[in-house]
Specification:
Largest sheet: 5 strands, mixed, barrel
Radius of gyration: 36 Å
CATH architecture of the largest domain: 2-Layer Sandwich
Helix content: 40-55%
Number of helices: 16
Low-confidence stretches: none
Distance between the termini: 95 Å
Mean pLDDT: 88
Oligomer: single chain
Structural class: alpha/beta
Number of strands: 15
CATH class of the largest domain: Alpha Beta
Shape: elongated
CATH topology of the largest domain: GMP Synthetase, Chain A, domain 3
């Protein structure tokens, strides 16, 4: 039985590509658990597995007694067969083949081995799947329902759930699609690979596949923000001054970026060149050809962009997507103004600020702080809480209370 067990497991290891080292540990652990229930720690149980001879043996000490009642004991009569000088209380070292144990022990060991091998196989499959995480895969759609698309990607079943689909992209059974492996889910019955076509990393991987300078690391993708199906902004920076990051991404006659747009079903892609200057980065994110000037707030991440009247709609973008994505890319709150609107805004703020400075507790310095954080009117302060005002630089609890009370009674 021992030989049959190890031989069959040896064959299984080859068939399933299981690690023999781990398989050996499984056999040892399972047999130890099954046999040790019949022994005491003092018996010193050890399990030996030899794949070359297909042998499994259990070695342990038996205590010499007058009449043995447990596996860990040996009768004086039997002990003398091993050692003619054996006496009661002595220890006799024995080595038993697995087939010499009672059927219940063998059955329990087999069951444990089978369960652990199944887990080992699942872990190996999971490891193989995990290697595909954060990669682009291609596969054929085999099923479409309310949960999403089931996709055969060759080595397993994948799911493109509805929340990871681009709103206006529709497919049918038999279509071949490319997607990004965003997650691996393990259920009791199987492993499910979760795909995405909306994830920003999907776009990054497409850039890596189409643009050699990004794949090599000469051009770094600093950040990607996306409104799937509509517009994406990709911020890039060249580590080599001789390499034009925007030109490299576009490619000759725009062929590189066009291949990516084709995969994204015509989604607009803006290449934004990175800059250490916040003003320049904001201008690049909105569109340097659209931007006249950028003003940053003294405190807080607020910026105002001045554009020509004819460029305002383009700067804001369809449904506000251009300025919204630019704000996400730069981490600034952005407002777009024409020159005329900006002058009117400045005049209005001067007038409003003049009211703010009339409040008790507001100095010129505090007025500037309030303005920088968006409290440009008495109404703004009226709507704020005392705790919110306390968070501002230079405004203590007592001053905040005085300002708030004054605004409430203004």
């Amino acid at each position: 039985m021992s030989g049959n067990l190890v031989a069959s497991l040896n064959e299984l290891a080859t068939l399933k590509q299981l690690d023999r080292g781990k398989l050996t540990e499984i056999i040892k652990e399972s047999l130890y658990q099954a046999v040790s229930k019949k022994l005491l720690p003092e018996n010193g149980l050890e399990i030996f597995v030899d794949f070359s001879s297909n042998q499994v043996k259990a070695k342990f000490n038996r205590f010499v007694v007058e009449q043995d009642n447990t596996l860990g004991e040996i009768s004086l009569r039997d002990a003398k067969k091993h050692n003619a000088f054996a006496q009661i209380g002595d220890e006799i070292s024995v080595s038993l083949d697995i087939q010499d144990f009672e059927p219940k022990i063998i059955k329990n060991a087999r069951k444990s081995i089978q369960e652990k091998i199944k887990q080992l196989e699942e872990d190996r499959i999971m490891f193989d799947y995990e290697k595909q995480k954060n990669q682009i895969v291609s596969g054929k759609i085999t099923k479409a329902d309310y949960t999403g698309y089931t996709v055969n990607i060759g080595y397993g079943e994948a799911l493109l759930p509805s929340e990871e689909q681009v709103e206006d992209e529709f497919y049918k059974v038999g279509d071949v699609i490319r997607s990004y492996v965003v997650n691996i889910r393990k259920t009791k019955k199987k492993v499910i690979i979760i795909l995405s076509r909306t994830h920003p990393e999907f776009v990054k991987k497409l850039f890596e596949s189409e643009i050699p300078e990004i794949f090599s690391g000469d051009i770094e993708v600093k950040k990607i923000v996306r409104e799937p199906g509509m517009r994406t902004k990709v911020c890039v920076n060249s580590k080599d001054s001789k390499i034009d990051p925007a030109g490299s991404c576009l490619g000759p006659k725009g062929i590189r970026i066009e291949q990516i747009r084709k995969e994204l079903h015509g989604e607009q892609i803006d290449i934004v060149v990175w800059s250490d200057s916040p003003e320049q980065l904001i201008a690049n994110a909105i569109g340097s050809d659209l931007t006249e000037r950028v003003y940053l707030a003294e405190r807080g991440k607020f910026a105002r962009i001045i554009v020509q009247a004819g460029n305002k709609n383009s700067a804001i973008g369809k449904k506000g997507k251009n300025v919204k994505l630019a704000a996400k890319l730069t981490d600034y709150k952005l407002d777009i103004f024409t020159e005329e609107e900006f002058e009117e805004k400045i005049s209005e703020e001067r007038r409003i600020t003049s009211h703010v400075i009339e409040l008790d507790g507001v100095t010129e310095k505090i007025a500037e702080t309030l303005k920088a954080f968006g409290y440009t009117s008495v109404q703004d302060i009226f709507e704020a809480s005392k705790d919110e005002l306390c968070k501002l630089d230079g405004v203590g609890e007592k001053t905040a209370g005085k300002i708030k009370e004054s605004a409430d009674n203004f």
